[in-house]
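Thread: Modeling a multi-component assembly for a lab meeting

Hi all, long-time lurker, first post. My supervisor asked me to bring a structural picture of a complex we are working on to next week's group meeting, and I have zero experience with this. I have the sequence lines for every component (759 residues in total). Could someone generate the structure of the whole assembly? Inputs are pasted exactly as I received them:
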Amino acid sequence: MSFLEIRSVSKSYRQHQALKEVSLDIQRGHIMGLLGPNGAGKTTLIRMINRILAPDSGTIILDGTELDPKHSRRIGYLPEERGLYKKMKIGEQLLYLSRLRGMSAGDSLTAAKKWMIRLEMQSWWNKKAEELSKGMQQKVQLVASLMHDPDLLILDEPFSGFDPVNAQMLKEIILERRAAGTTLLISTHRMETVEDLCSDVVLIHKAGVVLAGPTQAVRRQHSGNQIEIHCAGDLASPPPAPPAHTPVNSTSSNSLAISDGIASESTGEAIIRLVFEATPSEWPAIIEHYNHHSRIVYFAERLPSFQDIFIKAVGPNHQS
Amino acid sequence: MNKIPLVAGREFFTRIQSRTFLVMSLLGPLLFGLFIMVPVLMAQWDNESTTVWVHDPSGNFDSAFANADGLNFQKLPQGTLSNGPLNAKDSANIRELLQNSDVGVLSLQVVDSSWNSKIAYFSEQSAGLQITERIKNAVNERIYQMRMNQYGLDPQTIESLKAESDLKAYVWTEEGSQDSHTEMATMLGFGAALLMYMFIFLYGSMVMRGVIEEKAGRVMELLISTTSPFQLMMGKILGIASVGLFQFILWILLGAGISTLIGTMGLVESSPQTATMGVNAAQLPDTATSPNWMQMLGSMPWESIVPLFLFYFLGGYFLYAALFAAVGSAVDSEGDSQQLVMPISMPIILAFIASQFVMQNPHGSLAFWMSMFPLTSPIVMVVRLPFGVPLWEIALSISLLVTAFVGSVWIAGRIFRIGVLMYGQKVSLGLLRKWLFYR
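Re: Modeling a multi-component assembly
Sure thing. I ran the full set together rather than chain by chain. Output:
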C-alpha cells in the first residue's frame, strides 16, 4: 500500500484549472521528485497535501486514512516562499512552529537543540531572523520542517539559496531521513537533484501528470534506443561501420577517459566513441561487428538526462 | 487539536516583550498627563497681553472695561479718530495703530437714546472668541446698568428678583426614587466610550498589522499548513486582546501613580477648566457638586454596569478585530490597507461623534437605534448604560451584537482563508465579496 495516495484530485481557481484528475502514489521510504514548468500546478498539489487548500474533487490518503488536521503532526514542509518572523528569536520561532505541529514544549526544546547542533547553528538561538543571511534563514526553516520527525517531508526547491557546503549537508540529511523511513516529496527545477536523489519522479504539465514512475524506468522509457560504444583502434584507419547502421555521432580522442578508469594514454591507443540508434534486438549484431574489427572498451545503453526528458515532455516553447 | 491558546500565547508574549510595548506603556500615561497639563501650564505662563485702544466719543463706557487676563484697555486720546462714523482717514489711523503687535482697536458708537451701540473691533489677526465675548458682555452689562438708572431702578432690587433654582433629576424605580446623578453618568459614559474607541482602533489595527506582517514575511504559508485559518485568526485576536487589557491595566496603575504624584506636588490646585477658560471658579458647576463626588461614585449601580461594560468592550473589540484581520489578510502591505480600513472606521467614528448627542439625550431615538446597531452599539450603549437602560433593550442589543460578532468572524474567516494566499492582487470590496462566496 502506498504511503501517500492522491486519487483523481482536481482544483480550479476562478478561470484557471490548476489540477485536473491528478493521481499519484508515493511508496513509504521513497523520494519522489516533483517536476513541472512554472505554473503547472505543483504548488497547488503541495498545498493540498498540506491541507492549505482543499481539492474541488478527489481524495488524498496518507498512510491509509484520508487527510485530516491530525496529520499536521506527521508532515514536515519547507515552502518555496521562505519566511520567518523578522523580529522573533530563532529559538523561539523553532519552538513555536514545532509546537504548532503538535509537539510538546519539552520535546520541541530537545529537538531544536539537537538540530541546531547538527547544523552548526548553536549560537543563533537568541538572534533575530532579520540578523541572519538568506541562506542562514533557510537553514532555520529546514530545521523547522525536520524537528518533529515527520513521516512525510515535503521540500519545495530545497537546494535553491544554499552554498555547496550546505547543499551537501542537505543531501546527506535527505538520504539519512530516507534511511530512517521518512517518505519525501521534493519539488525542484534542478534535474541533477532528481538524478542524484529521487527514487521516483512525477512530471506535471498543464494541470495533469505527464509522466510518472521510478526514476530509472522513466529514463529507460524515454531512451531513444541509443547505445554508445568505445573502441580502441587507430585513428588513421577507423573500423568500418556495421552494415545498415551509421553512427549518429562519432568522436575520437586520444585522452577519452572511460568508465572503468583505463585512460587511453597508458596503452598508447586512441579511443573512438560511437553512438548508434538501434533497438535492443540489433545490439548483438553491432557488438559482434566491432569485436571483429576492433576491441570494444566500453558499451552502454545511452539513457536520456532528465533535462532532455523534461524539455521533450513540456516542449521548448511552452508558455510559463 | 485546538491551537488557539498557542497562537494567542505567542501574540501576547512576543508583543509584551517588545520595546515598543514597554515604551508605549510608559509613555501612554505621560502623554495623557501632558495633554491635560500643557494647557494648564501654558495658561499660567501666558504673559502675553493685548492692548485694546478704546475709541468711545460718548464717554459712556469709561468704567465698563476691567484690565485683566491679558487684556489691557486704554482710552484712545480724543481726536485720534473722528467722532462720527469712521471715514477713510480713520481707516489709515487704525492701520497705523495696528502696526504695533498685540494691539486691537475698539470703536463704540452710541446710535440712540437707549444706548444701543455699534461696536467694532479691529485687529491684525482675527480676534478670538474669548476677546470678542468679553468685550460684548462688558458693553452689554454697562448698557444694562445705564438703562436701570434711566428708569430709576435699584440694581440690588433687580438682582434680588433673579431666581436661582436648582434642578435635581431622579429616576423612578420599583424601590422608589433614586438620584440620577446626571453629571456622574455623563462623565462615566463618555470615559467608557473614549476607552472603547481607543481600544478598537489601537488593538484592532494591531491585529491587522500582525496579519500583514505574517503575510508579507511569508510565514503565513507555514502557519496555515499547521493551523486552520480560523484558529490562527482567533488566536491572534485573543492574544492581542490580552495585550490590550494588560496595557490598559498598566496605564491605569501608572496613571494613578502619576496623578497621585502630581497631586502631592500641588500642581493641580487650579483645575484645567478654571485656568484655561479664565472664569471665576465659583461659577463652575462641579465645585458645587464635588462634595458629593465620593457618595455619587458609591451609589452607581456598579454590579450591573461593570459586567455590561466588559461585555460591550470585548464584544465591540472582537467584532472589529475580526474585520481588521480580514482586511489584513486581503492586502500585501499596510499602504494598501487604507481604502479597506475606511469603511470599517466609519461606523466607529460615527458612533463616537453620536455619543456626544447621546449623552445629552440618552433615551432618544438616535440613542436607541445606535445602541441596537451592532457596529455602533459597543460605543453608544456604554454611553447610555450609566443613565439606566431598560432590560429588554440591553437584551436585544446584546443578542444583536453576538449575532454580528459570529457573522463578522464567519465573514472574516472566509476572506482570511483566501486572502492569506493571495499576493499581488489589487483588492477591492467587490473582490472581497467574491472571496466570501468562494468554495
